[in-house]
Each structure stands twice: as C-alpha cells, then as structure tokens.
Design goal:
The complex is a heterodimer of chains A (about 230) and B (about 230).
Chain A: E1 7-16, E2 19-29, E3 33-37, H1 44-52, E4 59-63, E5 70-73, H2 84-94, H3 99-112, H4 128-141, E6 146-150, H5 158-173, E7 177-181, H6 185-191, E8 194-199, E9 202-208, H7 209-214, H8 219-228
Parallel strand pairs in A: 3-7, 3-8, 5-6, 6-7
Antiparallel strand pairs in A: 1-2, 1-4, 8-9
Chain B: H1 2-16, H2 20-53, H3 59-69, H4 74-85, H5 100-136, H6 141-151, H7 153-169, H8 172-178, H9 188-198, H10 201-233
The chains are: A alpha/beta (about 230), B mainly alpha (about 230).
Chain lengths: ~230, ~230
C-alpha cells in the first residue's frame, strides 16, 4: 500500500469550540474501494467532507499525490426544481461543457442508472430511490476519479438500496475510486475493499474488508461489530 | 340610514358602469405599482440572494438595514424622491416631478427593501438545504445565488406580491411626488384621500372596493400558482 496511495491524511483535525470532531487523523488511502465505518457521531461524514473540501480542517493536511477530480453523493439527494435531466446537466454545465455535450452526457448517465424513461420528469416528484439515482447520475456524468458517498442508502428501502449498490459498483468498474460511509455492514462487505474504522473522531483501524469482519484488530471495532450485527 | 347607504349604491353604479374616469385611475394605479414592483424585483431579488449566500464585509449590517427599511414610511420616501427630482435637486434636469415616472421611482424605492429582505429569507432557507451539493458541484457563490433564485421562483412570488401589495396600497409617496393631478398622476389611494376629504364618498368607496378586490385577486392567483408549482415541481 505504501507509495501507491492516492491520498495521505496527516494529523487532520477539526475542532469546533472544545469538541474535537476529527482528532489528529493520519492515514493513507490506497484501496480502490474504501468504506469508513464507525458508530453514530464518530466523525465519518465530517471526514468525508474534509476530504471533499466542504469543510476546512483546523489542523493537519491532506496530501494528494495527484489531484483527483471528485464528486460527492449525499445521504439525502438534493434536487433542483426542474427535470431529472436538467439536474444532471446542471453539474456538467458548471464544469464548462458545451450544451450539446452536457445533454448527451446527461442522457447517457441517466441511462446508466436506469432512469432514461424518467429524464423529463420533475426531479423532486421522483421517489427517494429514484432521486438518489439521479444524484448518482449527476455525479457519474462528471466522470470523477474519486466518488465520495455519505451513507447513500441510509434513507432508502432495500430494493432501492440494492439498485444504488449496483450503480456504485458500475461507477467503480468505470475506474472511479470509491470512498463511502454506511451503516449497513452487509453493504460495507459487498462494496468495500478496505475498512477504515473511526470512533470519536480518531482513526482506530484500517483493515482489509474480510479481515475486519472476521478478525477486527481493535476492541472498539469488535464491540462495534457486535452491536451493529443483527 | 338612507344617507349611509347612498354612497355604496353610487359606488356600485360607478364600478358596474365601468366609469371612464374610474377606469383611468385604476389603470394608472396598476401600471405604476406593477412597474415599480417589477423594478424592485429586478433590483431587490439579486441583492437578497447575494445577502443570503454571500460572504463579504458588511453583510450583516446590510441584512439589518434591509430588514429595517421594510418599514420605511412612504411619506419619507416621497419627500426624499421629491427633493431629488425637484427642479433644484440633483435629478431635477429630467423634469420628472409630478409625473407617473416619479411615482414609479418612489414606489420602487419603497418596495425594493421589502423584496430584498423577503428574498433573502427564502434563499437563505434554500441555501441551507442546497449549500453542500452546490459547492460540491463547484458552483461559485454568485452562481449559487442565481441557481437558488430560479429554484425558489415560486416561493419568491410571495416576495413580489408583498411588494406589490405595499406599492398599490401606499398614499404618502405617490401623493408627494405625483402631486395627485387629475387625469395625470391621480391613483386609487390619492383619489380616495382627496375625495374623502372633499366629502365625495361614492368615488372614494368605489375605488376602495376595487383596491381591495385587486389585492385579493392577486393573492388568489399567487396562491393558486404556488399550489400548482408544488404539485408540478415539488
């Protein structure tokens, strides 16, 4: 893993008042698919937002060996009051693509998430699962080198969750690195290659996925797995 | 009792008979206030959106200022515009005083802070929902402001409406800068004020009815439009 990482996090901290939300986190991301796990309030989402640049750390740094284009999908999809297609086009337009290219790429992306039939429908009137797929299409259309997903299936029913997982796998297969959080351990197992386990803002362990679920290295992770497993 | 009823009867006859003098006053009122509201929207909505999403020194002061200016007394606005437009004033050379244009200017000044402050509230709510997504997609703040203005277009109709309601109902500003000249700058509110003081109640009452009807109708249309938008765009 050394030398081949795509992101090195060095002593990253985010303090709000006297609360340390991320506390001196240092690790290297090298896996193609990384899943960040941890109890509620551990700082998973915050870590992702720091990496994506939505938040600025109060200490430490992010070192990118090579700048990666990024896209992020949030727990609750944010849809503009326009069609599904126009929502996808919006992201492309901000990147400066021409109108025809935007439309073409947006249509392609919608087709890849299985929503070409709903392209002209108002995005906000789609179901939660469909909206999340539009959000995934919007991210995918940008052809990011790193796709960050913050609990993308947390508010979805099982069928929609499976569909979203399928799309995430496809995006990864198209070459994007995946960095995501989830509360669903089965999903972590299916999508992850490496698990980063964090607790109370600290990086507790970083383990290949199989090993994490069979032989977690730390007591905190063992406890977490016991509590979260059905 | 007969004396109390009489003005109502005459007022109704004026409305029902589409009295030409009445119609002229109503049309001038509507065109002045609609134009003023339009100008206020063009000026105030971008300002409100930038106040909601922007980060620049003096932002908080401006927010407080615009919120405060929502309660600007029309007579004071009228007086200030009068001073600007009067022959000796800085804009005196254009000879706009006592013209419908002067009334439009005064009402636009009166209404712009209302539109800006209400827009800021609407856009600030949207911004808290969209902020991360828009920043993630790489939208600059000004781009985000433009996006949210379009996205909030149905909610913003309320801001425009509040502005129009203020403009059409005010007397002080149009009275001072328009001069209430018969057939030129006489609008519904100034006519009501004048005719009431002269004791000609039927015309005043007829205009009062129309004024209320206009305000109600516009609110009803806006309400229906928002309902439609909600169903069609979520």
């Amino acid at each position: 893993m050394n030398g081949t990482h795509w992101l090195a996090v060095n002593g990253l901290s985010l303090t709000e008042g006297s609360t340390r939300i991320i506390d001196d986190a240092s690790l290297r991301f090298g896996a193609q698919h990384t899943v960040v796990l941890g109890p509620n309030g551990a700082g998973k989402s915050t870590l992702l937002r720091l990496i994506h640049g939505l938040l600025h750390p109060t200490g430490g740094s992010l070192d990118w060996p090579r700048a990666l284009s990024q896209a992020m999908v949030f727990q609750r999809p944010v849809m503009l009051r326009t069609t599904a297609l126009a929502n996808v086009i919006y992201g492309l337009k901000l990147k400066g693509h021409s109108a025809t290219e935007c439309e073409q790429r947006a249509r392609q992306a919608l087709a890849r998430v299985g929503l070409d039939a709903l392209a002209k429908r108002p995005a906000r009137l789609l179901s939660g699962g469909e909206q999340q797929r539009v959000a995934l299409a919007r991210a995918w259309a940008l052809e990011p080198q790193l796709l960050i997903l913050d609990e993308p299936t947390a508010s979805l029913d099982p069928a929609s969750s499976r569909e979203v997982e399928r799309i995430i796998k496809d995006i990864a297969a198209a070459g994007a690195r995946i960095l995501m959080t989830t509360h669903n351990l089965g999903q972590a197992r299916r999508l992850g290659e490496e698990i980063v386990f964090i607790d109370r803002g600290r990086i507790v362990e970083q383990t290949p996925v199989e090993q994490f679920f069979t032989q977690p290295q730390t007591e905190a992770a063992q406890r977490f797995l016991k509590e979260e497993s059905p | 009792m007969h004396e109390f009823n009489e003005p109502f009867v005459t007022a109704w006859q004026l409305v029902a008979g589409a009295d030409a003098r009445l119609a002229g006053i109503v049309l001038l009122s509507l065109s002045v206030s609609l134009t003023a509201t339009l100008i206020a929207c063009v000026a105030g909505m971008p300002v409100g959106a930038l106040l909601a999403v922007g980060r620049f020194p003096g932002r908080r002061v401006l927010i407080v200022l615009f919120n405060g200016l929502m309660g600007l007394p029309p007579v004071v606005v009228g007086l200030l515009i009068y001073l600007l437009l009067s022959r000796a004033g800085p804009l005196g050379q254009f000879g706009l005083l006592f013209s419908p244009a002067a009334m439009v200017i005064a009402q636009a000044v009166l209404v712009t802070p209302i539109v800006a402050a209400l827009t800021r509230q609407v856009i600030a709510d949207e911004w808290s929902e969209y902020r991360e997504q828009l920043r993630s997609l790489g939208a600059s703040r000004s781009r985000a402001a433009a996006t949210l203005l379009w996205d909030g277009r149905f909610s913003l109709s309320t801001a425009a409406l509040a502005g129009f309601g203020r403009a059409i109902a005010e007397v002080g500003a149009v009275m001072i800068v328009g001069g209430n000249i018969d057939g030129v700058t006489r609008v519904m509110t100034t006519t009501i004020a004048l005719e009431t003081s002269k004791g000609d109640l039927p015309l005043a009452l007829a205009l009062g009815f129309i004024l209320i009807a206009v305000v109600l109708a516009i609110n009803a249309v806006a309400y229906a439009m928002r309902g439609w938008a909600e169903r069609h765009w979520g």
